[in-house]
Design brief:
mainly alpha; transmembrane
């Protein structure tokens, strides 16, 4: 059960980090 909870938490953190990176790259309008 702990492994499942840790996996879900890691997935949420990874998703939020990728989302933040995408927003940071999208702000300057380099794309």
């Amino acid at each position: 059960m702990m492994y499942f909870m840790f996996g879900m938490w890691a997935g949420m953190v990874g998703f939020s980090m990728s989302l933040i990176i995408r927003l940071e790259l999208g702000m300057p309008g380099s794309l």
